[in-house]
Write a structure and sequence with these properties.
β18, α14 and β19 form a beta-alpha-beta unit. The strands form six sheets. This protein has an eight-stranded mixed sheet, sandwiched between helices. By secondary structure, it is an alpha/beta fold. 49% of the residues are buried. The protein starts with 5 loop residues before the first helix and ends with a strand. Helices cover 36% and strands 23% of the residues.
């Protein structure tokens, strides 16, 4: 697993600092000072061949001379010495190393490669190089050169920038915000963002995870970890480089629209990560997520002594998609009785400028009890009438008592004390109330909570491997692309494009190819006989944007018009693009749909995230209008609808004035078909349908471009090589018959299986649960089961077996691969009353077959010595069984595939 040995690095029992220096201002001296100040409780030693002691701490010349074997070694020595130090530490049994220095280089033959090779030899994990270090307040570990040590809390920070991590620590110190861990990952030689997402997602002390990202190395691994983490706790990211021009050389409109940052935005959206634009918003997010849980809805009640700031908050709330909460009739009557007649009578609840602490308390108590809202924002503008700190103290006390009474069902309460002294902020922070300098910051904080709730719901959706609504002719489509590649071509010609789209049931206008003007006249005459008007377009694999060279002529109605237009198009093309290979002209029926909307749909190939689907407003000015949204495939109808709704043009798809609405889901279905096309034929590198006309009758592709090319496997494991998110693997569904004719249906697990898993666990004895989980398990939370049921099938797979008669889950087997897709760790659980009927054997054979198909080299697992049945089965299946050298009651089992 990607969390392999991370606990040894982030919560070590022993630690060695290599390269510490007595020189003031040196990195080694700073880290030594921080380790000592944090009062690390485990064994600690210094390694430095030049000094016998540093700052009163004895040093040894080599790691082997320490009186203990360090779990973690922190290396501040020069880059050239790093690989040798890792080799020495690994040989002794160290679990991992934190590499602080830069300068190890990249790629083959570099110092970094030598360090990585040394670590792999001993199964060591590496953090860094070129990083600030790690800070784990709960473990009293500060192996960094940060100026401050954060206090313990429930936020985790994973940062590619040491400066950002240090800045977060300074900010947190001022706001009394604590951290469960801060890890500066630097160049990610081994441990990367995905590994740490896995770790902190499982960490019970972490409520939310903050990310600072510059670039993602392994997109499928990142998406898998991010989606898994976001299902159980908020994950917030700020990414630099938003203005980078990622599509300068794009040949299609779709490629131009799919700039680098737009693709990252789509990836974060699909992963369920909340993206913020800058550090201030990240701080605000931390302020909110570190103190309160997500609300059940997005109805916000606002309590204020200033009407203007209350209205500003309402405006921002509506703008961001929140709902101003109504005030219940009963609550309104009680507010009338408790407040002066001049109160606003609606939300925002303006209790007038002379409001004192008693008036605040009365109104807040009623709003907290009102079921018409999901959260309360309390705001105060200082006056000379009532001290701001007194009101803050009353509010803090009320909120504390309310939370004690309601516990997990308590609504979030947020606060804004405009221009208040720092001690007011400290008072609110001490009570666990998120507080902000302005109403804008507070409303954004609330909406971050709302977005997380929506994200969790959205992540439960798993796209099927093949939409059931259509049956594409994939063989015909593949033949078209294969022929073009065999011919050495990058672009499909218009007739191939039409046939390819039709293979996926995407209707395109009648299209013909003509080598010269007379052939164009012949095709046009056929269309004239059908009552159509004709359009001519230049046909050249080198001229992608036809209108740029006058290569499109519309509204042709006679053979002479066609002859003249064809001659003109060919002449202009030869004059303006003399180097282009010109094959003739395209003849198409001219489509006139007065009230149709012009849209663009397409596929683009991103170097990090693979295939991306683009939707937006079409026409020749698509880049200028820039109304588009991106999504990572695979898509189902719901995900396609979500993609459409993220654009401005989506409003035009609805009815307005005398324009009827576009046929329901006609556009969304084309997006689903393109998603399936990309899965079936990864050789499609770019695709443009522009425009796609959409109206009440349906959709029609008017023009399209498709670029093809050989595809190298971008992502590990099976599934579409070009998809960062794997589809639901329905090909693994099967019916099995075990002993005594018992029939079960086996399929990959789905999020909606959670209730069935709970029911399965009710039929598993306490003894069997201990054999499976190695501990007594008395209850299973939603978060725990969600980790089992909500997979994205990239690094983890679980099969459930359902009784074909009762439709109850009777067994589960799962496997989780390591981060480099070489080894998978398995686990299996059966209903206790149904053991001994051959189901366990059948599920183990299935998971072995699956692991082989994924290209894994080994399957491993840990089995308690007392679990004789499992150990016997493993031996019969060919597993090697060995005693665990550290845990004597555990056997390690391993099968080489």
């Amino acid at each position: 697993m990607s969390t392999y040995r991370l606990k040894n690095l982030l919560s070590p029992r022993s630690l060695a600092l290599i390269g510490a220096s007595p020189r003031q201002g040196s990195v080694g001296r700073a880290i030594l000072g921080n380790i000592r100040k944090a009062k690390f409780a485990g064994e600690f030693g210094l390694v430095n061949s030049r000094y016998r002691e540093i700052d009163g701490v004895a040093a040894v010349s080599h790691i082997s001379k320490l009186p203990f074997v360090p779990e973690l070694v922190v290396i501040t020595a020069p880059a050239a010495a790093v690989a040798g130090l890792i080799d020495e530490a690994g040989r002794l049994g160290a679990a991992g190393a934190l590499i602080i220095p830069a300068g190890l280089g990249h790629g083959m033959g570099s110092l970094a490669e030598a360090a990585e090779r040394a670590a792999q030899k001993y199964g060591m994990r590496l953090i860094g190089p070129n990083c600030l270090g790690i800070m784990m307040p709960g473990a009293h570990l500060n192996a960094s050169f940060s100026a401050h040590m954060p206090c313990a809390g429930n936020l985790a920070l994973i940062s590619q920038s040491g400066a950002i991590a240090a800045g977060m620590v300074d900010w947190a110190a001022q706001r009394a915000v604590g951290f469960s861990g801060i890890v500066s990952i630097g160049d990610q030689l081994d441990v990367d963002i995905a590994d740490l997402l896995d770790y902190f997602a499982l960490d019970g002390k972490t409520r939310a995870i903050l990310l600072y990202v510059e670039a993602v190395k392994d997109a499928r691994k990142f998406m898998s970890a991010a989606r898994a983490a976001a299902r159980v706790k908020p994950v917030v990211v700020v990414k630099s480089g938003r203005m980078a021009q990622g599509a300068k050389a794009a040949a299609t409109h779709t490629g131009a629209l799919a700039g680098s940052d737009a693709v990252y935005d789509a990836a974060f959206h699909r992963a369920g990560i909340l993206r913020v634009s800058d550090l201030r918003e990240l701080f605000d997010c931390a302020e909110t997520l570190g103190r309160v849980e997500s609300p059940l809805g997005k109805r916000l009640a606002i309590l204020t002594n200033g009407g203007g700031i209350g209205v500003l908050a309402i405006d921002r709330l509506v703008e961001l998609g929140g709902i101003p909460a109504a005030i219940g009739d009963v609550t309104r009557q009680k507010l009338d009785a408790a407040l002066p007649p001049a109160w606003s009578g609606s939300n925002p609840v303006d209790i007038v400028g002379d409001a004192d602490s008693g008036r605040y308390a009365a109104a807040l108590e009623l709003l907290l009890a009102d079921p018409s809202n999901d959260a309360v924002l309390v705001m105060n503008v200082q006056t000379a009438i009532a001290p701001a700190d007194e009101i803050a103290a009353i509010v803090s006390g009320m909120v504390g008592r309310y939370r004690q009474q309601q516990r997990r069902s308590a609504k979030p309460v947020l606060a804004v004390w405009v221009g208040a002294h720092q001690k007011v902020g400290d008072l609110l922070s001490g009570a666990g109330i998120p507080n902000y300098p302005t109403e804008d910051d507070a409303v954004r904080g609330f909406m971050h909570l709302v977005r997380h709730r929506e994200v969790v719901e959205a992540l439960a959706q798993v796209p099927p491997a093949m939409p059931s609504e259509f049956s594409p002719d994939t063989d015909a489509a593949r033949q078209i692309v294969t022929a073009a590649l065999a011919d050495g071509r990058r672009w499909l010609d218009p007739l191939e494009i039409k046939r390819l789209l039709e293979a996926y049931e995407i209707v395109m206008v009648p299209t013909f190819a003509a080598a010269d003007a007379e052939q164009a006249v012949a095709h046009a005459t056929t269309l004239f006989a059908q009552g159509a008007t004709v359009v001519l377009k230049i046909m050249s694999r080198d001229i992608v944007h036809k209108s740029d060279i006058g290569g499109v002529v519309l509204n042709l109605t006679t053979p002479d018009d066609v002859r003249e237009a064809a001659a003109g198009i060919l002449a202009r093309a030869k004059a303006l693009r003399p180097e282009a290979r010109i094959s003739g002209v395209i003849v198409q029926a001219m489509v006139v749909r007065q009230k149709a909307r012009e849209l663009i749909l397409g596929l683009a190939d991103d170097p990090t995230f693979g295939t991306v689907i683009v939707f937006g407003r079409g026409g020749t000015a698509v880049e200028i209008i820039n109304d588009k949204a991106l999504a990572l495939p695979p898509l189902d109808l719901q995900l396609a609808r979500d993609l459409i709704e993220r654009t401005r043009v989506s409003r035009l798809l609805r009815a307005y004035r005398d324009v009827p609405a576009v046929k329901p889901d006609a556009v969304a279905m084309v997006l689903v078909k393109l998603s399936q096309m990309a899965a079936d034929i990864p050789e499609i590198r770019e695709l443009d349908i522009n425009p796609l006309l959409a109206d009440e009758r349906g959709v029609l592709a008017v023009d399209a471009r498709i670029a093809v090319g050989k595809v190298e496997r971008k992502f590990g494991g099976s599934g579409p090589a070009n998809f960062a998110v794997r589809p639901y693997p329905s090909q693994w569904q099967r019916h099995l018959e075990v002993k005594d004719g018992w029939r079960v249906f086996v399929r990959p697990i789905r999020p909606e299986d959670e209730p069935l898993i709970h029911e399965l666990l009710r039929h598993v004895t306490v003894h069997d649960l201990r054999l499976r989980f190695f501990a007594s398990m008395k209850e299973f939370s939603h978060e725990f089961i969600a980790r089992l049921t909500q997979l994205d099938y990239a690094r983890a797979m679980a099969f459930v077996a359902l009784d074909e008669v009762t439709n109850e889950i009777v067994g589960v087997v799962r496997i989780h691969s390591d981060s480099i897709y070489e080894t998978g760790e398995y686990a299996i659980l059966l209903r206790s009353d149904l053991k001994g009927r051959g189901l366990g054997w059948a599920l183990m054979q299935l998971i072995i077959e699956y692991a082989r198909s994924e290209g894994l080299k080994t399957i491993s697992g840990d089995v308690l010595q007392e679990n004789a049945v499992m150990l016997t089965m493993c031996r019969n299946l060919g597993f090697e069984v060995m005693a665990d050298p550290a845990e004597h009651d555990i056997c390690n089992v391993k099968l080489t595939l």
